[in-house]
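Figure 2 data, in text form.
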Amino acid sequence: MRSTLIFSAALAGLALAAPRPHPQDINLDAVDAAPDPTFVTPPVDVVQEVVTPGTTDSDDTVTRRALDVEKRDGTCAKQPAGSGIIPSPDTASAFSADTDLQAIAQNAYTPDGYTQVFVNLAGSLSASMYMGLYTLPSFDTLSCASLCDQAQGCSAFNMYIERDPSLDPNAASCPNPPSTTNYKCTLWGAPVCAQEATNLGQWRDSFQVVITGSNGYNKNAPPPSIPGFTGPTELGGAINAPLDASGKNTYITFKYYPFSQSQGYTPSTCASACTSQTAYNSRHPAADGTYVTCEFFNAYVLSENGVPQGLYCSLYTETWAPSYGTNYGQYRGSNRYTVSESYSYSLSS
């Protein structure tokens, strides 16, 4: 499993408060040094799969399966029939060009509480924090959204149309069987974007799996409340805190967690970092016995060029109002780093 990289004040000074705390720039050196986010491609040969990230499937297991691009040699066993139309002629190119299938995606309803982030693409998601796949009887975005709403931690879903073989392809006996058309719904525990719709299908012996009508949706709902903290409070960007009324810097440090199968958009991770930081500081007090306590944190999704990378947590000794959430991102060369899903929590008194 990929390790989650945590940067703290104790690590080579990377996360020490800047001499000039306003603004607190995103520590891009640390972000660049962290592991890349883990991207998972859902399987094409299952009707339904439920994944509990971080428990039932390790990063290594899911990643190995996602990277398996070898042709499968099957048994010619009959596969479950899909519910979609089968274009004529029954070829991958005809499927990809079929305007009736594309119109289904283009006319799909955007469920309440969600934002459509892409529509009618030719690829399904290969993204972070894969939570499962469902084959539906129709291109039903409402049902897919309902599945997401029922799955704890689900932040997004992908609804798409896939050309699959009607028989399990075998190189000798049935290398290119007739197709069937499936409506598929996948769930994700981190926000998604069009740049992640890179799964264009695969070859199964001589049968070509292809995708059309791929729509992506991000959940608009705030993250859940966290025991021991008040919040969440929605912010426009990341917190840029000034010195406090006595001229002291209230910024403590940051933690950065790349998205993976064990790490999605979970502000509770930042809450744990906040309490752990206080515990660490209490074990390492100043000469006079005092130590800094974490009273407030800001959790947000950090994206690079539009692609979500990980969960970024900024820790403070004092609560700051939403009006200080003014850091919307930074540039490094031609790369743009942006802030989204930014929320704050304060330690309960």
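Caption note: The longest helix spans residues 267-283.
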